[in-house]
Automatic annotation (TrEMBL):
Catalytic activity: [(1->4)-alpha-D-galacturonosyl methyl ester](n) + n H2O = [(1->4)-alpha-D-galacturonosyl](n) + n methanol + n H(+)
UniProt domain Pectinesterase catalytic: residue ranges: 32-323
UniProt GO MF annotations: pectinesterase activity
UniProt xrefs under PROSITE patterns: PECTINESTERASE_1, PECTINESTERASE_2
Pfam families: Pectinesterase
Originating organism: Lolium multiflorum
Designated name of the protein: Pectinesterase
Length: 332
């Protein structure tokens, strides 16, 4: 009987270390190829998006071959179930240099239309996936926002992507989003919006000039009462140049949580900032739990930072904060 036990043990060992099969239930119905050199059906990304019919309900892969695609791309709300796939964020890039023109006198979100319109890439549809591709706003000025990507649909996921800009790089506008192993680069409010999102094992890369006397802000969240929104950073790291606040509250119930994140010394001792000195932060939830690195020391943090226990932080870091089953129904 011993050989039989050995065989059974070997099978169990192989099953343990074998790749876990995808839980995705939805297949890709077709693939559209984009190649600026003419090797696909289309030479621009927007042309491929335009080819997807309105009311689409079956996953369509838009495969974008390596290259820099200089264009503004918009996926409208009527075109869900699109998966945008590149050849690696270091090989496939969508870039443009638009920026917001007038930032004077801004009081609320409705005044930010020019900021939103500056986005190189905009995804307004629900059920969207991006893999291995870079979104970049190449506007070189440090005086105006220039959005690299705006994500306004629900149930959107980004894997191994890069978002590069300076001010307002990634507009995590509304909806539930999952970012995994992504790079988000910027200096001022470079992750902002009303979103309910988990950033898992992502790199937050500051490009604030080392000579700048003013620190930047990694986040600017804008949760409204009762919205149950928040930006959650789980694992990953904060690195780069200059100095950074972890965030400032854009709205009364802004929620940002850093959990087990490695923080370089560019994080200022205060950790967090107000939008202005008169701002009421009594309902803001800004928290750090289990972080490490020279920027993670909390002795000098602002007194209104929330001190969550490991048990209390679980409601944010658990994938159920954003997922009710939609992630497992995505195609690979």
């Amino acid at each position: 009987m011993r050989p039989l036990f050995l065989v059974a043990g070997l099978v169990l060992l192989l099953l343990r270390w074998a790749p876990v099969p995808s839980l995705a239930l939805a297949p890709v119905s077709r693939t559209i190829t984009v190649d600026q050199r003419g090797g696909g059906q289309y030479t621009t990304v927007q042309a491929a998006v335009d080819a997807v019919p309105e009311g689409n309900s079956r996953w369509v892969r838009i495969y974008v071959k390596q290259g820099i695609y200089r264009e503004k791309v918009t996926i409208p709300s009527q075109k869900g179930f699109i998966m945008l796939q590149g050849d690696g964020h270091w090989n496939t890039e969508i870039s443009f240099d638009a920026h917001a023109y007038d930032m004077l006198g801004i009081a609320n979100i409705t005044d930010y239309s020019s900021t939103y319109n500056s986005a190189t890439f905009t995804a307004q549809a629900d059920d969207f996936i991006a893999r291995s591709i870079s979104f970049k706003n190449t506007y070189g000025g440090f005086d105006r926002p220039g959005v690299a990507a705006l994500v306004g649909g629900d149930r959107s996921a980004f894997y191994d992507c890069a978002f590069r800009g300076y001010q307002d790089t990634l507009c995590d506008f509304t909806g539930r989003h999952h970012f995994r192993r992504c790079i988000i680069e910027g200096a001022v409010d470079f992750i902002f919006g009303f979103g309910r999102s988990i950033y898992e094992d992502c790199t937050l890369l500051s490009n604030m000039p080392a000579s700048s006397r003013q620190p930047g802000w990694v986040t600017a969240h804008a949760a409204e009462p009762g919205s149950y929104a928040g930006l959650v950073f789980k694992g990953g790291r904060i690195v780069g140049s200059g100095r950074q606040f972890l965030g400032r509250p854009w709205k009364t119930e802004a929620t940002v949580v850093f959990f087990q994140v490695s923080m370089a010394g560019i994080v200022v001792p205060q950790g967090w900032d107000k939008w202005n000195n008169a701002q009421d932060v009594s309902r803001v939830t800004f928290a750090e739990v289990g972080c490490r690195g020279p920027g993670s020391y909390t002795d000098g943090r602002v007194p209104w930072e929330k001190h969550l226990s490991y048990r209390e932080v679980q409601r944010f870091v658990d994938i159920r904060f954003i997922d009710d089953g939609w992630l497992s129904n995505q195609p690979w």
